[in-house]
Amino acid sequence: MKKLGLLVLLCFLVCCKTKSKEEINVEVAYETKAMLGEGAFWNYKSEELYWVDIEGKKLHIFSPKNEENKTIEMPSRIGTVVPVANKNKAVVALEDGIYIVDTITKELSLLSNVESDIVENRFNDGKCDPNGNLWVGSMHLAQTHPKANLYKIDGFGNANKMLDNITISNGIVWTSDKKTMYYIDTPTGKIKAYDFDDKSNTIKNERVAVVVNPKDGFPDGMTIDENDMLWVGMWNGNAVANYNPNTGELIKKIEVPAHNVTSCAFGGENLDVLYITTASLDMTEEEQKKYPLAGSVFKVQLKEKGVKGSFFNSPNLKTAQRN
């Protein structure tokens, strides 16, 4: 598989052209066949990439230093992961609720059973706001109706519905001044902006920041750089798209050797390496032949730099252990 990966990369990329004629080299960081790789999050304390395989029901922790990938099996589909401020803990969104997982013992503890009774939905992407609250959204399994929601969950497991009428809740980020939150409901093809109040952890004043051109794919997971520019994985778009949310402009695209690009996160010692997750699902036979590396984690060295992601702030970890 590694020889195949090398050959494909040599043929595919050596240079991906952007609007500015910039040359960008995309490489395989970890070659694998994840069914639905997602949820990229850089743990800047341990210098590891946290990511998930939703359909594979797996939490992954990848160390670029030794190129090792630790896998923790989950009892159901896992939508997202964010490290907890406490060492060796992470918060995960499973099908029946939100849990704390010990990344050493692999034990799960229930934090919130929100939406456990809504069988037509499952949890999808999520991230923490600047104060350490988890914002996590659900998605309608049939992907046909806006029956899902976006929740804010604090460290004690209290869940508050922040948005409804969602179909596929996806990327979510905050600006460096903590005043704006950007959010994606994938089928809308739009990135919306909200005023964020970091005192009350609430949002208001919804507006459209970016309208994605359908020919570029569907907006999926998202990260933000130090200049508050957005980087979005494009489902059905084989690329990461870089947008200016102030103007709605597409700055550039980074072509990735996978049809479905799902999420990205800035990592590395200087936060200038973009890690990219992909999926091996939802491809035609022709696309499978064209993108044999689909499902792998990719990386690209950039001149842009990211910001440190907010960890989940959970002062109360004495929750009930899952049976």
Question: Could you describe the 3D structure shown?
Answer:
One of its GO terms (molecular function) is gluconolactonase activity. Keywords: Metal-binding, Zinc. A divalent metal cation binds at residues 38, 170, 220. It holds the Pfam family SGL. A 4-stranded antiparallel beta sheet has the order 3-26-25-24. A 4-stranded antiparallel beta sheet has the order 4-5-6-7, with no helix packed on it. The protein has helices at 2-12, 285-290, and strands spanning 16-17, 23-24, 26-30, 37-43, 48-53, 58-63, 68-73, 78-83, 89-94, 97-102, 108-112, 121-128, 134-140, 148-153, 159-166, 169-174, 180-185, 190-197, 202-211, 218-224, 230-235, 239-244, 249-255, 260-267, 273-279, 297-301. It has 323 residues and is mainly β. The chain is globular. It has 2 helices and 26 strands. It has a single domain, classed as TolB, C-terminal domain (Neuraminidase), CATH 2.120.10.
